[in-house]
């Protein structure tokens, strides 16, 4: 089953956002949705040659090392861009891990309840995530630029919902990708452009 998000952004933008959110989720610590993430990854438009499961062993803390992308040589522009996106995702995940404990459990619980409601349309789920991001932004210090904070919080909230209820991973992934493509795409493009320089 392909994960496709139709939101008016270009196919290239959609691919970048898919890779960014997926890479963020793979690189976050303490995730309890490894199996669901692996299934989601196989449904994304990512070439099979980019998967490397050698790191799929248990770590000493009980977590699994995440699967990661490995780019084959010779490197093409597309592969180079995907490697940059992967590096950015890893860096954002590290920021997300530092912010993780500041996210209100009540906010996450409320999002889980909203995402469990199967009567909510995809647009409504995106709206629930948007409201949660806005609420979370209010509690964070202003030491990081606001758009970057929103981007990290969007992906962090997706991670926390999926950690709480792994079966919601696909839904919260799609909502996060939609939200980012509609509201934070310029910030994502700037990150990728700056990472490519």
Lay out the secondary structure.
Layout: H1 11-27, H2 34-43, E1 51-52, E2 68-69, H3 77-99, H4 105-116, H5 122-137, H6 146-164, H7 169-183, H8 185-196
Antiparallel strand pairs: 1-2
Describe the protein.
The chain has 197 residues and is mainly α. The chain is 63% helix and 2% strand. It is built from eight helices and two strands. Strands 1-2 form a two-stranded antiparallel ribbon. Helix 1 packs across helix 7 (169-183), helix 3 (77-99) crosses helix 6 and helix 5 (122-137) crosses helix 6. It starts with 10 loop residues before the first helix and ends with a helix. 34% of the residues are buried. The model is unreliable at 1-8 and 52-75 (pLDDT under 50).
How far the N terminus sits from the C terminus, by CA atoms, comes to 35 Å
Shape: globular
Main β-sheet description: 2 strands, antiparallel
Specify the helix fraction band. 55-70%
Order of helices and strands: HHEEHHHHHH
Counted beta strands: 2
Mean pLDDT score, rounded? 81
Widest sheet: strand ordering? 1-2
The oligomeric state is single chain
Low-confidence stretches: 1-8, 52-75
Structural class based on helices, strands and sheet pairing: mainly alpha
How much strand content do the residues show? under 5%
Radius of gyration: 16 Å
Work out the helix count.
8
